[in-house]
Each structure stands twice: as C-alpha cells, then as structure tokens.
Write a structure and sequence with these properties.
This protein is of the alpha/beta class. Helix content is 26%, strand content 16%. Helix 3 links the parallel strand 7 and strand 8.
C-alpha cells in the first residue's frame, strides 16, 4: 500500500489579512468580552449528553506572530475526538469559528485566527479536530487503516466529530467567558466542505454561517468510484503512467489557445470551462514522441479524464470529470510525482480497502474495482453515512442559517460539476437569501492555480449573518511564489459572471462588472447513478 504526506496547499484555507483603521481597532477593544475564570480552571470534564468532554490541558499563550494572547485548550470528546480550541483573553468579540478537516483527517491542524477585514481578527474563538482518530502513519491524511475494524472511529469521521466538537467548544466558551458565543461559523474545504454541508443538513442549530468550499459531499461515489477512475484511466498494464507530467504544459497551453478568448479576454484563464470544446487529438505526435505532443494512448487518457466515469451501458457513475484548464494540477493528483506521489490512487485504494464497505464485508482495491452499477451499489450502505447530499435544509433556513458554497473551476480533485448539480437541485440555480454559490476561475483544489490562487469568503459570510447583507461578490487573488499579488478578480454570485469594462487592467478587480450568464444558460443538473441518494438520510449523532 502506498501512503502520501500532506501537501500544505491541499485541504487548507489561507485567510487574507486586512489592515484595520484605528477607529475599528478601538471599537473592537471596547467590545471585547473578558474571561470570567482562569484558563487553568478549564482543565476538567464537561458532562454533555452524548458528548462527554475532557479538557486535558489549558495554558495562556502570549501574543505574537499576529495572534492575540489566548488560552490554548486541548482535549477530547469521548471516545477519541481530539480537538484544539483557542480562546482570546483580551480581544474576544463573541464569535466562534470551527475549521473543517481535510483528506481522511487523523491530525489536529492548529486553528488560525482569521484576519479578514472584520473588527480585529482575534475576536474569534477558533477550534479544529482530528475527526476522531489518529492516522496510522503520522502526518499522512490518506491512510485509512485506522478504520478497518473500528466502527466508533468510523462513526466519528463519517458524521459525528464536527457536531460533538461544536457542542464541546461552546460549553468551554460558556465556562470561560460566562456566555455561549453570539454567532458561530464553520469553514472548511474538501472533506471540510462535506462537513459544512453535513452540519447544515443534519445539525442545523450548530452554526449560523457555513463556508463550504469544494465539498466532497458525494463522498462514497467520489472516493470509491471517481478517484478510482482517475487512478485506473492513466495506468498502463505495468502500472506506469500513460500520460506523464512532462506533457501537461503543452496540453494546457493548447487548451488556452483554443478556448481562452471565449470569455472575451486573453487572460490565461477559462471563466467557464464548459464552453471549451478542445480536442486533445490536435496535439497528436506526427513524428517522435516529445513533450510538445501526445501519443494516441495519451490522447485517449485525456479524453477519458475530461469525461465522467461510466458503466458499460453508458450510465454516469459520477456527475463530472476534469474540466479543461485544470491540466497543470493533474501532476501530483492523477499523475504520481516524487514530491506527493499520486493522491487519487492513495485516497481511492485506502477507501476501498479499509473504509468503503461494512466492517467484515468483502472489500476491493483500485486494481480490482469494477465500474458497474452493482459495485456502485455495494458502496452505498457505508457511503450514505458520509454523504451530505440531502436537499432538505429547511430547518437550517428557518433558523436564519446562511450557506456560502464555492468551488474552483480548475479543481483536479473534486469535479466542480458535482457542486453545480447540488446547487441547481437545492436552489434551482438562483441565489437565495440563505444560500449562494461562487465559482472561481483557474482555482485548483481549495487553493493554488495558474492565475487565481486564493479565495476566502469568510468576511462576506460574517457580514451576511450579522448584517443581513447577502454577498453578491467576493474578490479572488492571484499570488506569485514570493507572495506578490499578481491579479485580483471579482467572483460574482453564480450564475452571474465577471465582464471586463474595456478600459482598466485585466489584473485589477475594479476593472470588472457583473453580467448575466451567457444564453442559453448551462444545464447544471446531471442525471447519474447516484441522484437517488439525495433522498437517503444519513445518521445523526446525539
């Protein structure tokens, strides 16, 4: 079995920092809520029904590195859901922010204090969890061996951990500050995006605002079928890759040459790659095999990657495939590299071996899985426990919850078509006062990309929840390796698109205005083997 170590850019969110005016800083200081007990007094048990909580350590951490002074709390919810909670001692403004986990989780990523243009970044209490297990190999989020025979650990990862940590954190916040948080937020991408949707669907009272990026909410089909498809499509008989990383630059450049101007600008990005009708056969080698051309076998692989997986009858087994423009990100996910291995193979093989079937039932592997309706259905009994596919968010909506979905158009790990399919079914494709979607051109999985590399809608989510102003636009940022900002671009609430004003710089967000979708509008609902799962409820923790 292969395992692969964490890549920082995957399944993590970068929160941009904004300079605050003296007036806003003063107002924040005046509004700060001070502790009513000492940090050390939190080291005790909290008898929460169904979520018995134990704080194992709590110590004050001095301000530094942009962080405020805070009480650093570590503990666990029985049986083994570990968490870290950071409680500002001088700057808390009544907000709680819980981060989602990435991959198969298995470690607690220290939660960051956001600095996103709100009245002082330290105004949040922040928390993160390992989702109820420690990875078998430290630092590896693709290893599923921990769940091979441990149903309790599976329960925590499938659905329970984010909910019970929210309960534990709020109880500790109440003990420390004398009151529960005024507003609670959840932010996650990838598996964290799945958790965000899961919370809105199954635990609608937990959070007031949920930021769910690139959600892995079709979890069973995504891990068991789609990632297996990515791994198998590009494997030769001897296990070597058919399409190599050396071919990706020429392939991507050919896509841009064919489709970049479709949105009216030659700006190196596809604003909606569904309009691109690129044929990889235009790159077929006419002489020697070089990095600038594709062999016939490689053309076949590229065509299969752009398409969803199907069974022998043509039934879609997942609602999307790779989008044109995502090619640079295939290295490391679809095509193994020395730095990262191949994430698709690791996720799929670990899921099929250890997590995707009932404990004790016959399992499968990337090499043996059959792309059939029968094998799809075999993944369903466990898959529905992970899935966050319900279209009934009425309880979340009734209590005033706000859902902000977003996805990168060039996501190599989770096809954006699945998010569009879900959003269309949920809202009929129209922005709601409680649910909005933002589609980010050129953005890879959760971050990184060729032109736009960062997207953080937390500020807009907080404004929506606390002032009632639905977000119409969020600015995406492109940043070079040295940190220099190379582009800003507005991303308007789907289905609106950004159109250049004809005069300003194409790298300046101020040079763009919103426009309606092109006519005719895209068809976002996809009919596939798993659409019936929207009506299958998942389990709910106490």
């Amino acid at each position: 079995m292969r395992t692969f170590r964490i890549v920082t850019a995957i399944a993590t969110l970068t929160l941009a920092t904004t300079t605050f005016t003296p007036a806003s800083a003063t107002a924040a200081a005046e509004a700060a809520i001070r502790p009513v007990t000492t940090c050390a007094d939190l080291v005790r048990g909290f008898a929460l029904p169904g979520a018995a909580t134990h704080v194992t350590s709590a110590a004050v951490v001095a301000a530094g590195g942009g962080d405020p002074e805070y009480c650093g709390v570590r503990g666990y919810v029985e049986p083994a859901v570990r968490f870290e909670l950071r409680l500002p001692t001088k700057t808390y403004a009544g907000r709680y922010l819980q981060y989602g986990c990435g991959g198969f989780c298995g470690l607690v990523v220290p939660p960051a204090f956001p600095g996103c243009g709100l009245p002082h970044g330290g105004g949040f209490a922040v928390a993160a969890t390992d989702d109820g297990h420690v990875g078998t190999t430290p630092g590896v989020i693709d290893d599923g061996r921990w769940g091979a025979a441990d149903q309790a650990a599976r329960n925590d990862f499938e659905f329970r951990a984010p909910h019970v940590v929210s309960r534990a954190a709020k109880a500790i916040i109440q003990a420390f500050y004398g009151a529960p948080p005024r507003k609670s937020y959840f932010s996650g991408c990838s598996d964290g995006g799945r958790e965000g949707l899961l919370l809105a669907q199954r635990y609608p009272a937990d959070f007031d605002g949920i930021d769910a990026g690139a959600p892995a909410h079709y979890w069973g089909p995504l891990l068991g079928v789609y990632q297996t498809w990515l791994a198998r499509v590009n494997s030769a008989a001897d296990g070597s890759p058919i399409l190599t990383a050396a071919k990706l630059p020429a392939l991507h450049n050919a896509v841009l040459a064919a489709c970049d101007r479709l949105d009216g600008l030659a700006d190196g990005q596809l604003d909606d790659p569904r309009a691109c009708r690129f044929d990889p056969a235009t790159l077929i080698c006419t002489g020697a095999d070089t990095p600038s051309c594709l062999t016939p076998a490689q053309v076949g692989v590229v065509r299969k990657l752009y398409a969803p997986p199907t069974d022998a009858r043509g039934t879609l087994l997942y609602p999307g495939g790779q989008e044109p423009g995502s090619e640079p990100a295939w290295a490391g996910w679809i095509i193994a590299t020395p730095e990262t291995g191949g994430f698709a193979f690791a996720r799929a093989d670990n899921y099929l071996r250890y997590l995707g079937y009932p404990i004790g039932a016959p399992a499968s592997t990337v090499d043996t899985f059959a792309f059939t309706q029968r094998e799809f259905d075999r993944l369903t009994p466990v898959g529905v426990r992970y899935n966050a596919m319900s279209l009934d968010l009425s309880a979340f909506q009734r209590r005033g919850g706000k859902l902000l979905l977003w996805h990168g158009w060039a996501d190599e790990a989770i096809p954006p078509a699945g998010t569009l399919d879900y959003y269309q079914r949920l809202t009929h494709g129209r922005p709601q006062n409680w649910a909005r979607l933002f589609m980010v051109p050129s953005l890879h999985h959760c971050g990184g990309g060729t032109t736009l590399t960062e997207f953080d809608p937390l500020r807009e989510l907080v404004t929506w929840v606390e002032r009632g102003t639905p977000p119409t636009v969020v600015t995406a940022t492109g940043r070079a390796a040295d940190g220099t900002v190379t582009r800003t671009r507005p991303v308007f609430a789907y289905p609106q698109r950004a159109v250049h004003d004809g005069t300003g710089s194409i790298d300046d967000a101020a040079s763009f205005r919103p426009a309606p979708p092109t006519s005719p509008p895209a068809r976002d609902v996809v009919h596939w083997a798993g659409e019936k799962l929207h009506a299958v409820p998942g389990p709910v923790a106490p």
